[in-house]
Specification:
alpha+beta; single chain; 165 residues; six-stranded antiparallel β-sheet; 6 strands
Length: 165
């Protein structure tokens, strides 16, 4: 855990091991509960981290994944970002998917639409889940072959005993 200008930051660099996905979710939830007690957003941010890490493992041509969680109490914002290498032909598809999910004015309708689009298939719901269940906005940045998918939203920390001002 690092403090940058009043911001709490968790940074992980990991190999894409499926056995770590649930551990990442628990770590993010625990970090959020400690860094920003009273916010009661641990599960939303943990869900976003889990879904983004799973997507990176499944779709990335990467040997390394980076997760960055930022909790900015002063700005009242939280952001989960996952960065990985990506095959160049996948980048336009990812951008289009993130844009489509983000453009949906009603996140629940978007989530239900994603479920109806492929009811028998595995996957394809993660970004819609983050948008609806996590109540977070999505974005994507590309630098060469490195792609970062972000999930961000408001953060309201309480004044618990472990709160850091």
């Amino acid at each position: 855990m690092a403090i940058e200008d009043g911001m709490k930051v968790l940074f992980l660099r990991m190999q894409p091991l499926w056995s770590m996905v649930d551990d990442v979710r628990r770590l993010v939830a625990s970090f959020c509960a400690t860094a920003c007690p009273g916010a009661e957003q641990e599960e939303q941010l943990a869900l976003a981290a889990q879904e983004l890490v799973q997507n990176a493992f499944a779709h990335a041509g990467a040997s390394e994944i980076e997760l960055r969680l930022e909790l900015d109490r002063f700005a009242g914002r939280a952001r989960v970002s996952v960065t990985n290498a990506c095959d160049p032909e996948q980048i336009p598809l990812l951008r289009a998917l993130v844009a489509r999910v983000q453009a949906q004015p009603d996140p629940l309708a978007g989530y239900l639409e994603a479920m109806r689009a492929n009811p028998e298939g595995r996957g394809g719901l993660g970004l819609s889940r983050i948008r609806y269940e996590g109540e977070l906005d999505l974005g994507v940045d590309v630098r060469g072959r490195r792609v970062t998918v972000h999930a961000a939203g408001p953060l309201s920390c309480g004044a618990g005993p472990n709160a850091v001002a």
